[in-house]
Amino acid sequence: MSAFRVNVDDGASLHVRLLDADPSIKNKPLLIALHGAPGFSDHREPENSFGFLQSQYRILVYDARGSGISDLKQPYTNERWIADVEALRSESHPMAGAEKIVLAGGSYGGFLALTYALAFPSHLLCLILRDTFAWGSRGMMNVLKQILTSTRLKVNPDRQLRLWAGYLRDKQDFEDVYTEIAPLYSPDLPDEVGETIDGKYTSLKFEGANKKQDGRRFHAATQDAAFGFNVPRYDVRAGLKDIATPTLVVVGRHDLITPLEYSIELKKAF
C-alpha cells in the first residue's frame, strides 16, 4: 500500500492511497473507488469495500476535494469532482494512471461514477454502482422522509432541514446532525449481533456513530454544496440508455437510504 498526493490542474492536492497486494504482477487493471457523502466520508469507506480485490486489481481510493485531508479548494461541483477522477486516471500520473479503468461508486460516489461514464465513456472498462440512484431530488427527499418518520431517531427538524437544503451553520452543526441520524445507517439489531457471509457473528455498529474515535473530519461547506446545489440539479436518467459500459448494480434489499427500487430502475435503464 502506498499513500501520496496528486496535484490536479487547478492546483488542488488530493490525498490518494493505492492498494496493491502484489505489485510484482504487472498490468493489473486499475479500479478507482469513489466514496460517498462529500465533506463527511473519505477514502476509508471504499478501501473497506473494495480492498479485498487488490490481488486482482490496483485499487485507488482517495479523499475527494473538500473531504478528509484533501485540499478544501472549491468549486465543489460534480463537474469538478469528475475532472479530478479523470486527472487520477490520466497517465500523466504514473502511480495512479491507466488508459482505461474500472470505476466504482457508492451513494454520492455513484452519482459521480454515472456522471463520469456519460462524460468519458471511452476511458471505462466497467462500472460498479453500489446503493445509488439516477435522480437526485427524489432520492434526497426519500432520505429526509425516512429521517423524519423513523421511530428509531430523535432529530431536530430544523437542523435536518439545514443539512438537506444546504445551509449548515458550521462544523459543529454538521457533527450534531449526523450524530442524530447515525442509527438510520445501522441494522436494527443488538450491537453484538450481525451475521457475516461466513456464518460467524460480528458487530455491525455504524462506523460514524462515535465521531471522536473514528477521526472523521466534517467539512460543512462541502456538504452544503453537494446537497444544497448539486443534488437538486443531478438527474442522469435520460442518459442512462447511452451508457454501453458493462455495469454491475448492487444494493442491500432493506436499504432505507437508497431503496431497492432505485437500483432496479438503474438496471432496467441500461
From TrEMBL:
Domain AB hydrolase-1: from-to ranges: 29-269
GO cellular component, one term: membrane
Protein keywords: Hydrolase
GO MF annotation terms: peptidase activity
The UniProt record lists the keyword Hydrolase: yes
Gene3D superfamilies in the cross-refs: alpha/beta hydrolase
Gene Ontology annotations of biological process type: proteolysis
Domain of life: Eukaryota
Family statement drawn from the similarity comment of this UniProt entry: Belongs to the peptidase S33 family.
Entry-linked PANTHER family: HYDROLASE, PUTATIVE (AFU_ORTHOLOGUE AFUA_2G14860)-RELATED, MONOACYLGLYCEROL LIPASE
Protein name in UniProt: Alpha/Beta hydrolase protein
